[in-house]
Design brief:
With 290 residues, this protein is an alpha/beta fold. Helices cover 39% and strands 17% of the residues.
C-alpha cells in the first residue's frame, strides 16, 4: 500500500536513508542482494522516485550474460534504472569488509552504501511509525509474525515496540526464509539493542523461528504452498513466493501446534514483495523441494 514496489517494510527501512543521502548530496545508492531480493527492487524504485542512480551488487555471476533467466524481481529493478554488477558467491561474502566497500566507493563516488536487506541504524528508526500505526489499527495486540531475511525488520519492530513501553506482554516472532538461519540471532540482537533474546525488555520478547524455511531461500514445500493457496483464496490477499508465504505457513503451523494461547491478538505483518510473483499468471514461481 506504500508504493507498487517500495512495499511493506522496505519503505520504512529506506525512508531515513534516503533523507540522509539527499542531505549529504549523494547521487547514487549502492546495495547488495540475491536474485529474489525485495530490497533490490525497492531500492531501484526509490532511486527512480527520488532522483538517485542505483547500483545492485548481485550474488550469482552466472546471471551476468543470461538476462532471460533474471527473476521478476531483477527485471523490475532493471526497468526502474538499476544497473547490476554480478559477482560470484565467494566474493559476495566480502560485502561487509572495509577493503571491498572502499573499492566500491572509489568506483562510485558520492554514493551511499546500503547493506543487504537495507538493515542499518537509520532503517531501525523507520519502524517507530510502524509500531504507532499497529497500535492504532490493532490496540492490545499480543503477537506479531513477520518474515525474516536479514533480520532488520524483526529487530526494528522489537526495538520500537520496547521503546513504546507497552503495558502488556508482546511477542514478535520472525519466520526465517533461509536454512540454518540461527546466525541471524547476533544481527537481530545488535540492531534491536537487546543483549539476547532471553534478556529483553520485560514486556517485549522476540523469537526467531527457523523450522519453516521450506528447504531454503526461494524454495518451498507442498505444505507451505497449500497454506499459501488457502490464505489467498480465503482472504483475497496475495503473498510473495519468498517471504510472506513462509510467514503465513509458520503462523498456521504455530496455531496447529497450539503454541499461540487462546484470546491472543495476532498481527501478520505483510512485508510486500509482490513483484516476485510471475506477471503472466500470478502463480508461485519458487522452487519446490521435499
Amino acid at each position: 500500500m506504500n508504493h507498487p514496489v517500495i512495499q511493506g517494510n522496505k519503505w520504512h527501512k529506506l525512508r531515513f536513508n534516503l533523507q540522509y543521502a539527499k542531505s549529504q548530496g549523494m547521487q547514487t545508492l549502492i546495495t547488495f542482494g540475491g536474485a529474489y531480493s525485495n530490497h533490490i527492487a525497492a531500492t531501484a524504485a526509490a532511486g527512480k522516485a527520488f532522483g538517485f542512480k542505483t547500483v545492485g551488487i548481485i550474488r550469482g555471476e552466472e546471471l551476468a550474460k543470461r538476462p532471460q533467466n533474471w527473476s521478476p524481481t531483477l527485471q523490475t529493478a532493471y526497468a526502474n534504472g538499476m544497473r547490476f554488477q554480478f559477482i560470484d558467491r565467494q566474493t559476495y561474502r566480502l560485502k561487509n569488509t572495509q577493503d571491498f566497500l572502499k573499492q566500491l566507493q572509489h568506483h562510485h563516488p558520492h554514493s551511499l552504501m546500503l547493506p543487504e536487506g537495507g538493515s542499518n541504524e537509520r532503517a531501525m528508526l523507520g519502524f517507530q511509525s510502524v509500531i504507532e500505526q499497529l497500535h492504532q489499527q490493532c490496540p492490545g495486540w499480543s503477537h506479531l509474525f513477520t518474515a525474516v531475511g536479514t533480520g532488520g525488520t524483526l529487530a526494528g519492530l522489537a526495538k520500537m515496540a520496547a521503546l513504546n513501553q507497552p503495558s502488556h506482554r508482546q511477542r514478535l516472532l520472525g519466520v526465517a526464509t533461509l536454512n540454518q538461519a540461527d546466525f541471524l540471532q547476533k544481527t537481530i540482537r545488535q540492531l534491536s539493542g537487546f543483549q539476547s533474546h532471553t534478556d529483553q525488555h520485560k514486556q517485549v520478547i522476540w523469537q526467531l523461528l527457523t523450522q519453516y524455511s521450506g528447504g531454503g531461500y526461494a524454495k518451498t514445500t507442498d505444505a507451505c504452498l497449500a497454506d499459501q493457496h488457502w490464505f489467498e483464496g480465503t482472504f483475497g490477499i496475495l503473498l510473495d513466493p519468498i517471504y510472506t508465504n513462509k510467514m503465513v505457513h509458520g503462523f498456521l503451523e504455530e496455531m496447529r501446534q497450539q503454541r499461540i494461547p487462546p484470546n491472543a491478538k495476532v498481527i501478520l505483518y505483510h512485508s510486500g514483495g509482490l513483484q516476485g510473483r510471475s506477471e503472466e499468471d500470478g502463480q508461485n514461481n519458487s522452487v519446490k523441494t521435499d
